[in-house]
Write the structure tokens for this entry.
Amino acid sequence: MKKTVLVSGGAGFIGSHVTVELVQAGYDVLIADNFSNCDETNYKGVCAILGKEMPLVKMDFCDAAAADALFAGHKIDAVIHFAAFKAVGESVEKPLMYYRNNLESFINVLEAAKAHGCHNVLFSSSATVYGEPEKVPVTEESPRQPATSPYGNTKQMCEDILNDTVRSTEGSKEEIRGILLRYFNPIGAHPSALIGELPRGVPNNLVPFITQTAIGRRECLSIFGNDYPTADGTCLRDYIDIVDLAKAHVYAVRRMLEGKMKKGCEVFNVGTGRPVSVLELVNAFEKVNGVKLNWKFAPRRAGDVTAIWADPTLANNELGWKAERSVEQTLAAAWAWEKRLAGK
Ligand code: UD1
């Protein structure tokens, strides 16, 4: 019997790539999305890659009755929860909107999972929970730092909500097992160029800003800060290929469904372990794609940390997962996706 995985936010950037990998690994996937922050491009791309119409429920997980009805109406073996707002700056301006949406939707997922016998919950967390780390690379044991934005706070709070739920249900018939995946900086697109990142308005993140500048939608990329205490003065991050990242979910789901977890709630860093500076990333993009990018140095962006990258040893050893793609391959995929969007 095939197992069914519910992917909330399955039409988004990460959710769509995860759906493809799950189906290709032999799982049935039910996509649920309210399309509040995306259109149907990625959903259609997923169907095109997989060569079939994927089951889709248009719904908002903030609607508790709808969440309950979804779990009541389907046999769901595991749920991966992506449905959330994710813009750091917007969360500072509209904290209540972020707290309501990101917390309420996750609470509703957990309530419905408990009520209808779904025991496996995977939450999409973020390296943002480590704040400005004292030591790099960060392991899962590195302390969480106070969040610098409501967005970051919702990630920490959802981690706690899952942990507490796991603890309170242990050994009961409503038992919930949890996995928290802490993503570093997901970038790139599917090699088919049929799904990828689709930011609304002006992109906040580096790679979509690079590709939009290269295609001519943006005038010039600003590199935020060249006076950081790093080799070239720009920030260091751990850029993880979106397909590699998606595959980590397959390993995590399998671990849950096969009863291989070593405790009720497990945490894994999902990164490459390889620090790359902003300048290195820009240079790599130009070189691998043979395009010249218009960029300038600009003042630091408020809230940015100097350097963070993962120690992915735990995920490598326990999940049997490892990031495989080079930054160059990933940047080539991001560029192919941007060109396809532009019809070039
Ligand atoms: C942010 C969030 C993170 C979230 C991730 C993906 C925080 C502190 N960070 O990470 O939680 O998971 O986005 O959505 O909450 N840069 C430029 N010019 C630009 C854009 C970015 O120089 O136009 C630089 C930034 O200063 C940074 C690097 O590029 O050094 C990466 O920035 P970005 O892609 O926005 O990701 P993070 O801020 O690392």
Observations:
- The longest strand covers residues 120-126.
- Residues 86, 88, 126, 128, 149, 152, 185, 204-206, 209, 221-224, 235, 237, 278, 301, 303-304 surround uridine-diphosphate-N-acetylglucosamine (CB under 6 Å).
- The radius of gyration is 19 Å.
- The mean pLDDT is 97.
